Amino acid sequence: MKRESPPDDQGYPAVFDLEDESEQARWERKGRERPEKFKTTTQEVGFIFAVVMAQLMSEFFVSGFIVLIPTLARELNIPPESTTWPAGAFSLVVSTFLLPLGRIADMYGAYPVYVGGIIWTVIWSIIAGFSTNEIMLDVCRAFQGFGPAAFLPASMSLLGSIYRPGPRKNLVFSIYGAMAPLGFFAGIFFAGISAQYANWRWYFWIGAIISAFSGLAGFLTIPSDIAERRAMNVKMDWLGTFTISVGIILVVFALTGSSGAPHEWGTDYIIATMVIGVVFLGLSVYVEGWIAEAPLLPPELFKIKYMKPLVLALLLTYGGCGIYLLYATQYMTEIQGATPMQLVAWWSPAAVGGCIIATVGGFVLHLLPGTILIIIASVAWIVAPLLFALVPVGGQNFWPWVFPAMVCCTIGIDITFNVTNIFITTSLPNRQQGLAGALINSLLQLGIAVALGLADITVAQTADQGVAQKYKNAFWLEVGLAGAALVIFVGFVKVDKAKAQATADERVEVKS
Question: For residues 473 and 458, is the Cβ–Cβ distance under 8 A?
């Protein structure tokens, strides 16, 4: 069997015999080639744009809303103790329904789930822009969360199933990871412009416009996997979905609502929701381990080497990330006096850094051990909140304190996200790529939701120490979480180079 390579010095194509090609050379070649599902480079570029925008949009609707909270509280008469709910409702719905919607993507195809999630997001973003009171805003934010819960695992499933392990996959996943800080920056940017120069409603409508363009690109360029997924005969775990969802909602509700409850943890409804939530999570463990025929979290997932400690470390890391994103914004606003547009400027190093890391990471992830990269990222995640915890109160202190914190922030999130996403998607077979996407984003969203609940408790319990110090206490909590994650990564997780290799399905075929 012959294959033509690029032309030689005289302009004639060199020809080599694929039968003489070594196994590793074959994986290297396949890991660099354009996937067969794309007929043209234009289609691949459109696909990448559509899929990576999923990550940008999810961050857009989190970060920008934080900037809008003071404006919304004033114009919609939202009391201070209720401002966490419109922000928390979105993340809570996303974290709760990622797993079941990831399973639906494995059952019916990531393509329709992605497009459907985008359409849903557009509709509820438009409606949210017409909110007239707190209740309407809360409902819109909650329903809006179902969109990312659908298109996030679907987008990761598409990337994981279409791209083989190798440099091309590394580059695409790096671009995907860069969309997290870029989306966070975009959210702050458009929220700042809307709040300071226009009307807060435009923040939601701009998000709807961006989402619509992404959905259109996806509709036109994403290869349909409906027939392929249906042929896999993947089943839904409805009982597991019910017990896990109810458990997560109640536990996160108790954590988030305890600080604002009349008697805090002594409040009856806080105690009740926490106890019932823990009971349901306990039931979910029994259901998933002994009853469900097709559990949402199959046991073989945790039989993958290093997966258990990796999951724990990522929960701690992403939880710390959520604390940093929220409280760094609040500290810069309330203590350092930053205006909405100053926030845009101060967060710009994280956005620019994300783009740089994406560009560089795509070319070095197959050359450097993942463990070394994760350790670098973990140390950066300790330094970022440590700088805010130690920054002198008074003055803006951007260059000596905030700027290096932002650089460390993007190093921490981008490297961790890229290295671990490639590891997880490469470890799972094609029929479980929806699970891979759901697991990755569930760890991110759930880690943030739980850690923010703990941070909220910390801030509320130390409010008598002053506004600046109570925020610094939240940063110290993040330092602790990041330090624990570093210990787990160093002691219990080993990730090799993201080199070209056989897929999980191909490795199974060889063994059989």
Answer: yes
Longest Cα separation, the chain: 82
| pLDDT, mean of residues 294-306 | 90
Phi/psi at 52 (5° precision)? -70, -25
Q: How many residues does the chain have?
A: 512
Q: Hey, is 202 helix, strand or coil?
A: helix
CB 255 within 8 A of CB 454: yes
Taking Cα atoms as reference points, which of 343, 280, 326, 285 lies closest to residue 449?
Answer: 326
Please provide the DSSP assignment of 455-507 as one string.
HHHHHHHTGGG-HHHHHHHHHHHHHHHHHHHHHHHHHH-----------HHHH
Asked whether the beta carbons of 79 and 50 are under 8 A apart, the reply is: no
Burial of 115 (0-12, 13-18, 19+ CB in 10 A): buried
* pLDDT tens for each residue of 171-184: 899 889 888 888 88
Which regions of 92-235 does DSSP assign to beta strands (E)? none
Residue with tokens 């985008």: 118
Residue pair 150/113 in contact (Cβ under 8 Å)? The answer is yes
Give me the amino acid identity at 479. V
Q: Name the band, by pLDDT with cuts 50, 70 and 90, for residue 139.
A: very high
Say how far apart CA 430 and CA 428 lie, in whole Å.
7
160 close to 303: Cβ distance less than 8 angstroms: no
- 293: its two tokens: 């025929």
Task: Determine the Cα–Cα distance for residues 121 and 49; give it in Å rounded to an integer.
Answer: 17
CA distance 224 to 156: 15
- Ranking 30-44, 159-173, 348-362, 446-460 by mean pLDDT, the lowest is 348-362
Residue 22's SS3 state is coil
pLDDT of the residue at 17: 52
**Angle between helix 370-390 and 307-334 (nearest 10):** 30
- Contacts of residue 266, Cβ cutoff 8 Å, sequence gap at least 6: none
Q: How far is CA 296 from CA 37, 201, 227, 232, 438, in A?
A: 28, 38, 22, 16, 10
Count of alpha carbons within 13 angstroms of residue 14, beta-carbon side? 8
6-20, 178-192, 345-359, 373-387: range with highest mean pLDDT? 373-387
Backbone φ and ψ for 14, nearest 5 degrees, come out as -80, 145
Per-residue pLDDT at 511 exceeds 50: yes
pTM for the whole thing? 0.87
CA–CA distance, 434 with 225 (Å, rounded to integer): 12
DSSP-assigned letter for residue 400:
I
Task: Report helix, strand or coil for 6.
Answer: strand
First CA to last CA distance, the chain: 26
Task: Output the pLDDT for position 15.
Answer: 44
Q: Can you tell me the distance from the alpha carbon of 218 to that of 233, in angstroms, rounded to the nearest whole number?
A: 25
- Across the chain, mean pLDDT equals 89
Q: Tens of pLDDT along 97-114?
A: 999 999 999 999 999 999
